[in-house]
Amino acid sequence: MSVVVVGSINQDLVARVNRIPAPGETVLASSMMRTGGGKGANQAVAARRAGDVSVAFVGAVGTDLDGESLRGALVADGIDVSGLSQVDGPSGMALISVDDTAENTIVVIPGANAAATALTPAQRSVVAAAQVVLTQLEIPIALVLAAAGARGAEAWHLLNAAPSAPFVTAGGSLFPSVDVLIVNEHEALDVAGVDDLEAAVTALAPRVRALVVTLGRRGSLIVCGDERADVPAFAADAVDTTGAGDTFCGMFAATLAASGRVPESVDIALLADAARAGAAAAAIAVTRTGAQDAVPSAAEVAALIERTHA
Is 237 a catalytic residue? Predict the structure, then answer.
């Protein structure tokens, strides 16, 4: 049972502010924190802390000191980094402001994450061994397509379309390669090219095996064939929402891998279970600061689900 995450890895610089500044405005921060981030790396950490699956990460860091520390943090979490390459130049970085209401703004400087558009032979071997391949759009779409093409015949490809980007490129369309598409409401509208959520669901669901739309405090909507399920959110007093969606995705992927099921046998019950675990993990994560630092353990997630549904 294994998950391979192909994606971005960043050094996060997180400033706590009273409020997000308006254009042209300067505000003073009360603190600043350096921590590991990047959607791909965050999701790998979340999948690994789910506890039941092995996790590998495929991506790139730079030749700077950030690259060394980011690699070391993944290793410390028990993540296989044999597919993490090093390229000349800086590692990825994200500049994040978090205000007193737990909202954030994020500016990503891709750095090494933008360097690769194909997998190396070693990275292809890592991807081919996975039961679940999880990707996002903080890396070139060509690399997402390469990862999908390198997976095994019975492996899942989960795409978290964040940040949203065109699905049809010179390398082809992403849709045929995707088993489960995970988007938030904004991303669903953007990918579908409409301004109504129901219209977006109608447009997107037939193009993948399953569609997952996360809706914040309203939970998530799961669509699989002709079936739908609404999975409620877990109550939380949020202090920092950075990385909450990544935590959801990593836990979701780990749950699918632990099930031992293949994409052809997907059903709404399995997807709802995965979304419930993801929602519980995200609810815990938003009560803490940082992205990877905030990801809970499997025991914490199980305890929250048990308390809520007792």
Answer: no
